[in-house]
Amino acid sequence: MANKRTVGRVLAKKVPLHKSRSDCLHTITAVIVVKGTIVSIGHNRKLRPSVYNQHTIHAEIDALNTVKPGTDLSKAEIYVSRFNPKGRPLLAEPCEKCKQAIERAGIQRVYYTVQSNELNWQVL
Ligand SMILES: [Zn+2]
């Protein structure tokens, strides 16, 4: 089984984390991985038009929404990263709503970036 360091490194290469499709000032990307395979990638972005009075969607929810139906997430990991416009990592601890959604989906391992000069992952 891959440890978080290797997966983090692989993700950094595979996913252009700081050049995602987000249209928000700070780019947040959520990547769901099952046994080393990326099954979904989500971004924070503006909703146009807004949905039920919500103007943005969080990356974690976007990623959860695009997982293929029937995917077993009991062994999944979610990596949440946040970068400033210059590409430096920032704290990306999921908010309460996202934590609950991740829990409901059955994902038990959550990693997120912390503010530093390097790409580091913290476990929730
Ligand atoms: Zn959130």
How would you briefly describe this protein structure?
The chain is of the alpha+beta class. The protein is built from three helices and eight strands; from the N terminus they run αββββαββαββ. Residues 58, 60, 94-95, 97-98 line the site of zinc ion.
Describe this structure in words.
This protein is of the alpha+beta class. β1 and β2 form a beta hairpin. Helix content is 22%, strand content 35%. The longest helix is centred in the first third of the chain and has 11 residues, at 4-14. The site of zinc ion has 6 residues, from α3.
In percent terms, what proportion of residues is strand? 35-45%
Kindly state the number of beta strands. 8
In DSSP terms, counting alpha (H) and pi (I) runs of 4 or more, how many helices? Answer: 3
Q: Class by helix and strand content?
A: alpha+beta
Radius of gyration: 14 Å
Span between N and C termini?
19 Å
Q: Give a quick account of the main beta sheet: strands, pairing sense, barrel closure.
A: 6 strands, mixed
Give the rounded overall mean pLDDT.
82
Helix content: 10-25%
**What is the N-to-C order of secondary-structure elements (H for helix, E for strand)?**
HEEEEHEEHEE
Low-pLDDT runs of 5+ residues are none
Shape estimate: globular
Bound molecules: zinc ion
Features:
two-stranded antiparallel sheet, 124 residues, binds zinc ion, 6-stranded mixed sheet, alpha+beta
